[in-house]
Write a structure and sequence with these properties.
3-stranded antiparallel sheet
Length: about 400
């Protein structure tokens, strides 16, 4: 398949040759070689910088970027297991006038949770961990009030433990050690008893990374690289680092007081935590989507468990599973996650599983409505959907 990426807000055009080879097996698609989507190759010859007509999705994206003051955006659409569209629009770095590319690296923020939850489920599959384990079985020095919190509670945001980022109990501009989060929360009461309610808490995924370290001896990012990123050929997906030289890294921005500003500074050890600390490309997340349609990483039964709404103590259901939001959009089943950060990034991965359409959107403007854009794009591929009012 040869895709020519349409011009967006003055962006130089890029022609990318994408070679995909899939074979259908029931409802999932898997590549015929050993590494999912490893057949993707990129060609950026000077001769490829030629003009093409933008399609309706390009028109839609450019309209949203202008409306929402988004400097740069990358997009991938996967349909029936095939990379249907990969496009880049606008600027990755405004100050240096650097255009985005489909291999531009963005902070994906809380989409990271889909990977951390998968790491935990790999350990569950191997019998090294149980969802019903009390977290005190794996971590020392926890508050007494956490004694009934289980691994399942952390995965599903039903632990009642305060969110160290959104209910700040420490200065996020200062570097921390993993145990500092526990110490900062030690005297703080739970927001509710474990399993009583659903309340999004990044602390839970920080603690899951500590459990991964205790069980495997590896930091969570090392475990993910060995067990997920390398096997899938996700070569641009790693833990965020301030110090590392990262080619094609996007800069983050905020739209405040009617002007664009640089994103806020967050300490490296806070930024690179297991609830939101990964950076990636839309092409790498297309590989992740392909893996989720196969048994390449996790067993199908495990994935179904992750994509089941959590049950609360009173028998009601939360709109979240293990690292994924579970719901519907205009009556279509949607498994998704978004990411947002004050450093200036918004991301969305929307998987319309029954329609076999996945839309991945990365932006470098914290105020963007990334999910509205993703569902608006999906409406171009799923006839039953109509663009939401928020994205019109």
């Amino acid at each position: 398949m040869l895709l020519r990426f349409g011009e967006g807000q003055g962006v130089a055009l890029l022609e990318i040759e994408i070679s995909l080879c899939f074979s259908q097996q029931r409802t999932s698609f898997r590549p015929m070689n050993s590494s999912i989507l490893s057949g993707i190759t990129f060609v950026f010859p000077l001769a490829s910088l030629i003009a093409t007509h933008a399609d309706t999705v390009d028109d839609y994206i450019q309209k949203q970027m202008q409306k929402q003051h988004i400097p740069g955006l990358t997009l991938a659409v996967v349909k029936d297991g095939v990379l249907e569209k990969a496009s880049a629009y606008g600027l990755a770095n405004v100050e240096l006038n650097v255009p985005t590319r489909t291999d531009t690296i963005f902070q994906i923020q809380s989409i990271t949770k889909t990977f951390t939850a998968s790491a935990i489920m790999l350990l569950v599959e191997e019998g090294k961990l149980s969802l019903t384990d009390k977290i005190s079985e794996h971590l020392a020095g926890l508050p007494e009030s956490w004694k009934d919190v289980t691994v399942r509670h952390l995965l599903t945001h039903t632990s009642g433990i305060k969110d160290f980022i959104n209910e700040p109990v420490m200065d996020l501009r200062l570097d921390i050690l993993p145990g500092d989060v526990i110490r900062a929360l030690h005297e703080k009461p739970l927001n509710f008893q474990p399993g009583e309610k659903y309340a999004y808490s990044n602390t839970g995924y920080h603690l899951l990374a500590m459990i991964i370290r205790e069980i495997t001896g590896q930091y969570w990012g090392e475990f993910l690289q060995e067990r997920i990123f390398d096997p899938l050929g996700m070569n641009d997906t790693r833990v965020i680092s301030h110090a590392e030289i990262i080619t094609n890294r996007a800069s983050g921005y905020l739209w405040e007081r009617d002007r664009l500003q640089n994103g806020r500074y967050i300490a490296a050890t806070v930024l690179g935590y297991a609830g939101g600390g990964l950076r990636s490309t839309v092409l790498d997340l297309a590989k992740w989507d392909a893996a989720l349609c196969s048994d390449k990483i996790l067993k199908p039964a495990t994935l179904e468990q992750m994509w089941t709404r959590a049950e609360l103590n009173d028998g009601s259901k939360a709109g979240y599973g293990f690292g994924w939001g579970i719901g519907t959009h205009q009556g279509r089943r949607l498994i998704s996650h978004t990411g947002s950060h004050m450093t200036g990034f918004k991301s969305a991965m929307a998987r319309f599983v029954d329609d076999k359409v996945t839309v991945i959107v990365f932006t470098n403007q914290r105020g963007a409505d990334q999910m509205a854009i993703a569902t608006g794009v999906a409406a171009h591929y799923i006839p039953a959907l109509k663009p939401s009012a928020a994205a019109d």
